[in-house]
Specification:
CATH superfamily of the largest domain: HUPs
Strand order of the largest sheet: 14-18-17-16-19-20-15
Mean pLDDT: 91
Strand content: 25-35%
CATH architecture of the largest domain: 3-Layer(aba) Sandwich
Number of strands: 20
CATH topology of the largest domain: Rossmann fold
Largest sheet: 7 strands, antiparallel
CATH class of the largest domain: Alpha Beta
């Protein structure tokens, strides 16, 4: 069997190639360049060239052919343009999930097959397994600290059938040891960070390539707003009094709707200041909140964000609670336990629900207990899935911090308590 390894220059894909070679596969490596621009990046101009150089050294060390492919056009069209569009709408996309679905297991797969590959292998920490009916399951990796199944939550059966994950049954520490023993040039290379194939970026600078910077207010929301909010009280009462299955479609829609802080308005008043009694204008005090700073554009911020606010004078850090693109305003709250950070229900539009094994798709009116992850490396959270005409609703057992529109919610089967080695299957996902 001929296998193409997506060799990135990192230790994970290097060990994946090494294992396949040792297992007797006909292996070749292909390095893909997906990005040329450097505006907004923090690592300089030649990071991809350095990665390519290391990848070539690894291929030579292992003794496999090496190829180069430029997929920057496909990456811009399928990933980056989508990313800009989502940020412009006040949503926070996950480019890594899109990169796997649209590039690594689509455009890259096509190039690999054109070179004669039967399968494509990557250095992802996840596993696949064939079900009795012949379909493919996607399972978590063995290493609980490195599981990357979340990033593959949008793959379909055709893509999985062509995929190999050689290191999914290994710990990261084992991968490092194996790379060192084999004297691979990537053995001590640090893991990549930032946006897939772009790297670490100054996000506002990166986004300003297409999105205009416009100053607006930063509003801090006080606890008093929640005490006086009819929606906040009604949502809490509804969740406390009813089982998820008893909630109507309209009630679920209401619970999944983020809080709206637009009723926090500020009126001005004039006053005289100083010995000369100079007339000045100030905002009247508002028990619900206060304007505490300025920002460069609401589209550059995401729910739960802490860094980049540059607002002092608080005992605890400020976190972004919501963004209002139309008003170009962001709302913040003080402290990690601020009430505005937590929600219990999210909705995935019917057209955005993806099942990795279509036979597991839920029918309208059905429900399923499972565990859900709304961001990479988040511990799996117990929840109920409710499929309704309006889409798939996820009702968590415990309120979740920073549920963010545009991100992916991935749902997993419940673990087998009798099997301590059991790795849950990733059932599907959808855009929040």
């Amino acid at each position: 069997m001929k296998v193409c390894v997506g060799l990135s220059g990192g230790v994970d894909s290097s060990v994946a190639a090494l294992l396949l070679k040792r297992q007797g596969y006909d292996v070749f490596a292909m390095f893909m360049q997906n990005w040329h621009d450097t505006e907004g990046t923090l690592h300089g101009d030649c990071e991809w060239e350095e990665d390519k150089f290391v990848a070539e050294l690894v291929a030579r060390k292992i003794g496999i052919p090496f190829y180069f492919v430029d997929l920057s056009k496909e990456y811009r069209q399928r990933v980056v343009d989508y990313m800009f569009d989502e940020y412009a709408r006040g949503r926070t996309p996950n480019p890594d999930v899109l990169c796997n679905r649209e590039i690594k297991f689509d455009a890259f797969l096509e190039k690999a097959r054109a070179l004669g590959a039967d399968m494509v292998a990557t250095g992802h920490y996840c596993r696949k397994e064939q079900a009795p009916d012949g379909s493919w399951k996607l399972l978590e990796g063995i290493d609980p600290g490195k599981d990357q199944s979340y990033f593959l939550c949008q793959l379909n059966q055709e893509q999985l059938s062509r995929a190999l994950f050689p290191i999914g049954g290994m710990l990261k520490s084992e991968v490092r040891v194996l790379a060192a023993k084999a004297d691979l040039p990537s053995a001590d290379k640090k893991d990549s960070q930032g946006i897939c194939f772009v790297g670490k970026v100054d996000l506002p600078v990166f986004l300003q390539q297409k999105l205009k910077s416009v100053e607006g207010d930063v509003v801090e929301v006080y606890d008093a707003w929640y005490s006086d909010s009819a929606k906040y009280a009604a949502d809490a009462a509804l969740l406390a009094s009813r089982k998820p299955s008893e909630l109507t479609d309209a009630e679920l829609e209401e619970l999944a709707t983020p809080l709206d802080y637009s009723d926090i308005v500020f009126q001005t008043e004039t006053y005289r200041s100083g010995k000369k009694h100079i007339k000045k204008t100030r905002y009247r005090e508002n028990p619900w909140g206060k304007i505490v700073g300025r920002h460069e554009g609401a589209q550059f911020y995401t729910i739960g964000q802490r860094k980049g606010l540059a607002i002092g004078g608080h005992a605890s850090p400020l976190f972004v609670l919501a963004t209002d693109i139309a008003a170009n305003r962001i709302y913040v709250g003080e402290g990690e336990e601020h009430k505005g950070l937590f929600r219990s229900v999210l909705r995935i539009a019917a057209g955005d629900v993806h099942w990795i094994r279509p036979e597991l798709a839920m029918a309208v009116g059905s429900e399923r207990r499972c565990r859900v992850r709304i961001r990479y490396r988040q511990p799996l959270q117990d929840a109920v899935l409710l499929m309704r005409d309006a889409g798939l609703f996820v009702v968590f057992d415990q309120p979740q911090r920073s549920i963010t529109p545009g991100q992916f919610a991935a749902f997993y089967e419940l673990p087998d308590p009798s099997d301590k080695w059991d790795a849950p299957e990733l059932l599907g996902s959808g855009v929040i």
